[in-house]
Design goal:
Blueprint: H1 6-22, H2 28-48, H3 61-73, H4 78-97, H5 124-131, H6 139-154, H7 158-162, E1 169-170, E2 175-179, E3 185-189, H8 192-209, H9 232-246, H10 254-267, H11 272-279, H12 284-287, H13 289-305
Helix pairs in contact: 1-2, 5-9, 6-8, 6-10, 10-13
Length: 310
């Protein structure tokens, strides 16, 4: 096999990202994060060789350890380093399968241990206040209200909401068809309040589409004020605005509403396996973190209410 230069590594990175997007249906956030991680790795390779070309075959386990060591020296958080390890492992598996390298240098790469942290979520009273934030006298306010209600009603991910088309929503059957990770589809129930919010939004959606480039987003359920399909940055901006108005939690993202959805269901006695299916989790162990949230809540109630708790 001929030697491949750092430039070829760059080509492999482009091919890998294309593979994630087209075949693995990776979320926009994952694609953006992995692209940043791999570009950082390419910069490290170039700097380590004083700008000279680097052979693909020169990247071994030691090279990867040096890269991760440089991140530790720069005080990167363990969670960030763990993601970069996962990214490198995935990239080199792809490179090996594609015949770009004779062996996988990331095979035995160890990830730093991250302390388990319970997910942030909002209380039921806070959720009530959140839903009252959008100005429903405007088309944008109705859209934002529908987005908030749908996130909370279904627990879907950011990328899943962005990819929704009007045909994916069955308001008569109170369900939504979602395409999740790995291009896997699932049907999720939609609550009555989310259904009402969607109907109100769909009635004004043509106003957002008309004469504002809407033809480019005819298939999109949620569109911008100019008629384009909504994007991750715009949705995160919406979440930051409305959640920030009712809560001082540090993270104000769509995932907070996903966590809230799961926590509230389990707090009210929902079956863990049913919640797993609605969230689109591959493994039950991923869903079980929300049982810890519920138990933590029960412990607080116990310590406050039981006469012999302390």
């Amino acid at each position: 096999m001929a030697e491949r230069t750092a430039g070829n590594v760059g080509n492999a990175v482009h091919g890998f990202l294309r593979y994630l997007r087209r075949e693995r249906n990776a979320s926009p956030n994952t694609l953006s994060a992995y692209e940043d991680d791999l570009n950082q790795f390419l910069r490290f390779l170039t700097e380590s060789s004083s700008g000279s070309p680097v052979s693909f075959r020169e990247i071994d386990h030691h090279t990867l350890r040096l890269f991760l060591g440089s991140l530790v020296d720069k005080s990167f958080a363990k969670k960030s380093i763990a993601r970069k390890v996962a990214c490198l492992k995935s990239f080199f598996r792809y490179s090996l399968r594609s015949g770009l390298i004779p062996g996988n240098p990331a095979l035995a790469l160890a990830s730093p241990k991250i302390p388990k942290r319970l997910p942030d979520y909002l209380g039921e009273d806070v959720m009530e206040a959140l839903m009252n934030q959008p100005d429903r006298s405007t088309s944008i306010g109705l859209r934002d209200h529908a987005i908030l209600e749908l996130f909370y009603s279904t627990g879907i991910r950011l990328g899943e909401l962005i990819r929704l088309n009007p045909d994916d929503v069955d308001l008569s059957g109170n369900t939504v068809k979602v395409v999740g990770k790995g291009n896997k589809s699932r049907i999720v129930p939609v609550g009555a309040r989310a259904g009402s919010a969607l109907r109100a939004y769909l009635a004004v959606r043509p106003d957002l589409m008309a004469g504002k480039g809407g033809s480019r987003a005819d298939g999109a359920l949620f569109v911008t004020a100019r008629g384009y399909r909504v994007n991750p940055k715009g949705i995160n901006r919406i979440m930051n605005k409305y959640i920030g108005a009712v809560s001082d939690i540090q993270k104000k993202s769509p995932h907070v509403l996903r966590h809230t959805f799961a926590t509230h269901l389990l707090n009210r006695g929902a079956d863990l396996r049913a919640v797993k299916e609605m969230l689109g989790h591959e493994s039950l162990s991923t869903t079980q973190i929300y049982t810890h949230v519920s138990i933590d809540r029960l412990k607080r109630i116990y310590s406050q209410a039981h006469p012999k708790a302390s």
